Amino acid sequence: MTTEAVTKTTPPAVPAGARRSLGARLAEVVSGGLVRVFLIVVGLFWLVPTIGLLLSSLRSPQDMAANGWWTVFTKPSQLTFDSYSKLLENGDITHSLLNTALITVPATVLVVVVGSLAGYAFAWMEFPGRDWWFLAVVGLLVVPVQVALIPIAELFGKLGLFGSILGVVLFHTGYGLPFAVFLLRNFFAEIPRELLEAARLDGAGELRLFTRVVMPLGGPAIASLGIFQFLWVWNDMLVALVFTKSGTQPITVALQTQVRQFGNNVDVLAPGAFISMVIPLAVFFAFQRQFVSGVMAGAVK
Which of 82, 137, 262, 294 could make an SS bond with 220 (beta carbons 3.0 to 4.6 A apart)? Predict the structure, then answer.
């Protein structure tokens, strides 16, 4: 065969750009600088209410009644910390912040610890009726909170827990456990069996296997669960309205009570609302760093 024939039968070279799929080209467009600028603008618009609440909490009631919070950009002399000083002098608000921490932290820790142990048991331990018990736990996910408010309130009343912080913690723990067990069981079940068998051959018992192997690998799921549970309990108002009284109210109920009693005391409401919002944000970003490190630790073998 001559060189001329080979040349005629050889298909023409396809340009590199023409061989790329539509998905690859769309990914290149999405990752461009224009899209990043658009996402930054959207993020800034998303933060406008938070910025507005922060600036409102740094203004006097007279300034807030006269004009909007955006005027601080032209009149920065409006900014003052007097509202935060009044907030610290308000015993109801400061005590409610302490109550919120006393409710949120134990409810989060209990759900993470008990959910992790139960998730490991359902994933890797053999016991009678394991699958049926797990189906019962999954079935509890569809039970609305509103359905159990009155029966559990009557039960807590008979046990002397109604109106106490312990009662609110137990309620949040009970309702957080089904999702925690479901999430962690499915995550732990993806751990390679060979890894667990190798640890058992080395003499590791169930507790050591759980703490030394399963927990480090389950870091991403456990961190996510902790974030979700903390945010849910901290921002809860329905359960707190039903199960707390004047001395055990969290910050959400205390702020609502301030609105009902005084109506226009924005010098206390604005800084109180901002503090109640910024604390879970700080916890979220703190756990976010641990979440990323857990992902990296689980990905490296």
Answer: 294
DSSP β-bridge partners for residue 244: 163
Contacts by residues 242-246 (CB-CB < 8 Å, ≥ 24 positions apart): 242/149, 242/153, 243/153, 243/156, 243/162, 243/163, 243/167, 243/168, 243/171, 244/99, 244/163, 244/165, 244/168, 245/163
Please name the residues in contact with 298: beta carbons below 8 A apart, sequence gap of 6 or more.
Answer: 216, 217, 218, 219, 220
For the segment 136-154, the average pLDDT, to the nearest whole number, is: 87
The rounded distance, in Å, linking the Cα atoms of 297 and 223 is 13
Question: Nearest to residue 220, comparing CAs of 288, 266, 123, 279?
Answer: 288
Which has the higher per-residue pLDDT, 22 or 162? 162
**pLDDT tens digits, residue range 131-140?**
899 889 888 8
CA 293, 297, 298, 299 torsion-angle sign: positive
CB 110 within 8 A of CB 172: no
Give the number of C-alpha atoms closer than 13 A to the C-alpha of residue 183, restricted to the C-beta side. Answer: 22
Query: How sure is the predictor about 260, in pLDDT bands with cuts at 50, 70 and 90?
Result: low
- 109, 172 in Cβ contact below 8 A? no
pTM (2 decimals)? 0.76
Q: Give residue-wise pLDDT tens across range 10-36.
A: 555 545 444 566 666 666 666 666 777
- Which residue has tokens 């137990």? 170
Sign of CA dihedral 111, 244, 54, 36: positive
